[in-house]
Amino acid sequence: MASEKVVTLTDANFKSAVLEADKPVLVDFWAAWCGPCKMIAPVIDELANEYDGQAIIGKLNVDENRQIASEYGIMSIPTLLVIKNGQVVDKAVGFKSKADLAKLMDSHI
C-alpha cells in the first residue's frame, strides 16, 4: 500500500511541486511494467514517512508523463533524482537499498 505522504507528480504539477519546493525533493521516475520499480516502491513509501517535513518524496510515471521524463533525459528506470532549489543535485539509477537512498537524502537536507 502506497504511503499517503508520497506525492504523485505529473507534467502539469512538476514545476510547482518540485522546482518551486522549499525542501529537497526525491523524484522516483517509474512505470507500472518495471520490475525494479515495483521492488523499490516500498522503500520510497518508507522514506516518505521518515523524511516527512524534511523533504518531499514523489513519484512520476514516465508512461503517463513523457514531457518531464524527456526533459530530464530519463533513459532507464527506476531513476531517482534529488532536486533542490530547482536543480538536480544527485541521481541514482536502478534499484537502491533504503540505506543507500537515506544516505543520498541525508547529504542534501
Salient structural properties:
alpha/beta; single chain; transport; Thioredoxin_domain; Glutaredoxin; 26% strand; protein-disulfide reductase activity; 109 residues; Thioredoxin_CS; 5-stranded mixed sheet; globular; 5 strands; Thioredoxin
Q: What does the model show?
A:
This protein has 4 helices and 5 strands, in the order βαβαβαββα. The protein has 109 residues and is an alpha/beta fold. The protein has a single domain, classed as Glutaredoxin, CATH 3.40.30.10. Strands 1-3-2-4-5 form a 5-stranded mixed β-sheet. The longest helix is centred in the middle third of the chain and has 16 residues.
Determine and state the CATH class: Alpha Beta
Query: How confident is the prediction overall: mean pLDDT?
Result: 96
- The ordered string of helix (H) and strand (E) elements is EHEHEHEEH
Secondary structure category: alpha/beta
Q: Major sheet: order of its strands?
A: 1-3-2-4-5
Please estimate the helix content.
25-40%
Strand content: 25-35%
The CATH architecture term is 3-Layer(aba) Sandwich
Domain Thioredoxin: 1-109
Family: Belongs to the thioredoxin family.
Organism: Heliorestis acidaminivorans
Disulfide bonds: 34-37
